[in-house]
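Dear support,

I submitted the protein below through the web form. The confirmation email said the job was done, but the results page showed an empty box. After a refresh the structure appeared. I'm attaching both so you can tell me whether what I see now is the final result or a partial one.
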Amino acid sequence: MEEEQGSHVPPLSSGKSSLQGLDIAHAFFKPLLQSAPPSSTKRHTKVSVIGAGNVGMAIAQTILTQDLTDELALVDAKPEKLRGEMLDLQHAAAFLPRTRILASVDYSVTTGSDLCIVTAGARQIPGESRLNLVQRNVALFSDIVPRLASHSPDSILLIVSNPVDVLTYVAWKLSGFPSNRVIGSGTNLDSSRFRFLIADHLDVNAQDVQAYIVGEHGDSSVALWSSISVGGVPVLSFLEKKEIAYEKEALERIHKAVIGSAYEVIRLKGYTSWAIGYSVASLARSLLRDQRRIHPVSVLAKGFYGMDAGEVFLSLPAQLGRGGVLAVTHVHLTDEEAERLRDSANAILEVQNQLHLGGGGGGGGV
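What the results page shows now:
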């Protein structure tokens, strides 16, 4: 998703037909007499996606097909591409749930959003670590986040741009939002890849595998082997009780495959998009529909699992609902896993400490 801030361009048309002026709707339908107004309790949901690149459009398309919002606003700095993407989606209206689709280079189109999803950022270069992207994206966020916070002060910010943990921290600082309303997509997708590889290894359905990758969304991520279960059966304790030998090296190879899988996709097709689209849509569903599901997402980790070194965002299994992050799950960590998690936090803090951001977030804890 290459994204650059350009000069002001007027908002794009929402794509409504010029025939609307002929009042055709009234010719087709006769209103009921003495009808009551719509219920005041009916909720209108609005989602904004910032960045109309490959990832942003994969997320937008998945949200549309899963009927997660009543209104979808797209923002990008490239007006022609943005209008083309909007029209392309609008032309699929006959095959999709009814959703109003808007697009503009002007952030006012995001006004009143329940959820703002930020995907804008420099594209990851093959072989480049996610943390190397940070300096190229902080300046961009300094322009984007305050505008979103101004137009939708009660929204939830969901950061997808990489390096997601550092940029979620940046978004928190720039927005002034309480930390429970600033979330990074984190290792939600890493955990999905992890579950897939374990399921493939054991020849079972991935939906029957409970497994988490936590920590940084990147090279220092931590696989929580001690808490993996398949069909409700804890894997490692089962193997130990049955005295079934397993090699730790084999487990590490699966974790390394998780870390390398995104780089492999980038090497082969230049970017990742479809999997992150489904991953973010699952987060949007949990948030907007108050599902209270557990997702490993990037949250303010201070005070959890003995991490008190500083204000760092990294992925922990968190309960998500209409208020954003509702709680962090008490997952048992081995001493080795806890140490690796702290090392992951320190790797992120090392980058954050070079940013020297002014201001502060709105809330202290998750």
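Response: this is the final, complete result; the empty box was a page-load delay. The chain is about 35% helix and 15% strand.
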